[in-house]
UniProtKB/TrEMBL annotation:
It comes from the Bacteria. InterPro entries: Bact_Polyamine_Transport, MetI-like, MetI-like_sf. It is a multi-pass membrane protein. This is Binding-protein-dependent transport systems inner membrane component. The chain crosses the membrane at residues 12-36, 66-91, 103-130, 142-164, 185-207, 213-233, 245-265. Its main location: membrane. PROSITE patterns: ABC_TM1 (PS50928). Belongs to the binding-protein-dependent transport system permease family. CysTW subfamily. Residues 66-261 form the ABC transmembrane type-1 domain.
Amino acid sequence: MSTPIPVSRSPMRTLVLSLAMLFLYGPILILVIYSFNSSRLVTVWAGFSTKWYGELFQDSLMMNGVILSLSIAFMAACAAVVLGTIAAFVMTRMGRFRGETPFAFMITAPLVMPEVITGLSLLLLFVAMAQSFGWPTQRGFLTIWIAHTTFCSAYVAVVVAARLRELDRSVEEAAMDLGAPPLKVFFLVTLPSIVPALLAGWLLAFTLSLDDLVIASFVSGPSASTLPMVVFSSVRLGVSPKVNALATLIIAVVGLAAFIGWWLMARQEKRRQAELRLQAEA
């Protein structure tokens, strides 16, 4: 029986880890604390207050930005999952074909291309289309959604393609040998196997779209301002305590979602371990 390897608990290791955690999460903690500051100056503590949360929900410009960003992020993530999955299947299941290398390069180009270049290219495209075809008549929700779907699809394609390359194709081949058509094999065998990758790609696309500022600034119009654009324009005039309140709410939602996900996975793992123990005892 092998002896367990002792874990190093040197004071220097603990100090370095503590400093790293303080560097990463210290500013977030300060932001949360100052979101309850009663002073209009975010650097001067004047007492505990929740008035900035009330003013945040009364700020129509910021609330409209939240609704617009969530709507675009949801729709862009859904469209990116569809397009990215199709691109992933082409790259991993179509075999060798003419133009395979340029196709893979064009799919993955948004991963390494600066957002300024992507935003400017899409802006010129929309302007040229408006002059040639009369569409889009104005830039706003639709153009932002198209732009976000474009660069989010690349991330989804990479995630799904990695899962497809690891997938055992013998199960799919066995299903087709038993007479199942390719479409039925996809929905009953392949799709359930890549669901975790699809969910990961959707969450990644949703986060990237919700966080984007540069590309949205190029392709948006005066009638559409996403949340990052609203926050950036307000911060340029000075950090408002309402921004701290908004950031605190976002942190709380993300933290709650992460905790629920961890709890569900831990519960599933405990159930799996219990089933394995029952099988071993039987």
